[in-house]
Amino acid sequence: MEGIVDSHTHVSLLPFEGLENMALAGVRKIIGCSMFFGATYAETLFDHFHQMLTLSTSNAAQNGIKLFVTVGIHPMGTPENWPRVIDALPSYLNMSDVVGLGEIGLHEGNKREQDVLREQLKIAKEYGVPVIIHTPPHHRVEITEKTIEIAATVGIEPGKMIIDHANLDIINLIEDFGAVPGLTIRQEGLTPHLLLNHLERFPRGVLNSDYSNLKPNDPLGVPRAVRYLELNGAPPEIIARIARYNAEELFGI
Q1: Is 59 helix (H, G, I), strand (E, B) or coil?
Q2: Rounded to an integer, what distance in angstroms lies between the CA atom of residue 81 and that of residue 116?
Q3: Can you tell me the distance from the alpha carbon of 211 to that of 14, in angstroms, rounded to the nearest whole number?
Q4: Could you tell me if 204 and 181 are in contact, meaning their C-beta atoms sit under 8 angstroms apart?
Q5: Distance, C-alpha 93 to centroid of its chain
Q6: In this structure, is the dihedral angle defined by the CA atoms of residues 215, 139, 188 and 16, taken in order, positive or negative?
Q7: Radius of gyration, CA atoms only, the chain
Q8: Using CA atoms, how far apart are residues 102 and 100, in angstroms rounded to an integer?
Q9: pLDDT by residue (tens digit) across 88-144?
């Protein structure tokens, strides 16, 4: 299908050829999420945001892809002076092509991570923007429950939250809260085969590659999943929802 949206990538880690291949496979819009592993200072993240909004945007455009950006503090890259980033987030949300906050969330679930997540969710609620929420590879149920607890306390609209890296272990928690499942396609998580076999549980989801060079990832994860679903008789209307329209409606793109 044409017009595919990859709803979660890390474009500062995506090579130019990766963007070219995504475009050739039908990807037309991508969401570039903030993540700078091990960030020490707020300025590190400000430079990271600037790179996404300039170089990464230009590289995507040269390949016929429209890049939209989300900014925020990833739990694996929280600077010591993180409140400075919180104070700056509203100015970024006023920029064109910045469509929300992300990737934010909990990784270990400690108090510091919870405090940083809470403050970012307050900003998202105030500005009415979507958020992309990280879930870790370990203790996923407990971390997702804590994330939802914090979000409920803040009072953010559940439908504005993508709880990402969804799988069968946490999909009921996501659905019961009313959040949007982020459907990250990769071999150690939600594979196209698993998605097809449980497609009725994920129709509100948004497909993504979560591409970075920090672990094995495939920039063509989303179009490969779309093709697998098409070849194996999945309903076209569900494919279109999870590969394009759900993300376009949520982010207003």
Answers
A1: helix
A2: 11
A3: 7
A4: yes
A5: 16
A6: negative
A7: 17
A8: 7
A9: 999 999 999 999 999 999 999 999 999 999 999 999 999 999 999 999 999 999 999
CA pair distance 250, 253, nearest whole angstrom: 8
136 residue type, one letter: P
Q: Check: CB of residue 41 under 8 Å from CB of residue 81.
A: yes
pLDDT tens-digit series, residues 210-228 = 998 877 789 999 999 999 9
Nearest by Cα to 168 from 146, 140, 145: 140
Residue 48 structure tokens: 């990271």
Question: Starting from the edge strand earliest in sequence, which strands make up the sheet with 161-163, in order?
Answer: 4-9, 27-33, 66-71, 98-105, 131-134, 161-163, 180-184, 206-208
0.90 surpassed by pTM: yes
Distance of CA 236 to the CA centre of its chain: 23
Judge whether 219 and 21 are in contact, CB under 8 Å: yes
The sign of the dihedral angle between the CA atoms of 103, 5, 50, 63 is: positive
Report the 10 Å Cβ neighbour count for 158: 15
Q: Return mean pLDDT, the chain.
A: 97
Query: What letter does residue 159 receive in the DSSP assignment?
Result: G
Tens digit of pLDDT for each residue in 68-87? 999 999 999 999 999 999 99
Going by C-alpha positions, the residue among 200, 199, 207 that lies closest to residue 181 is 207
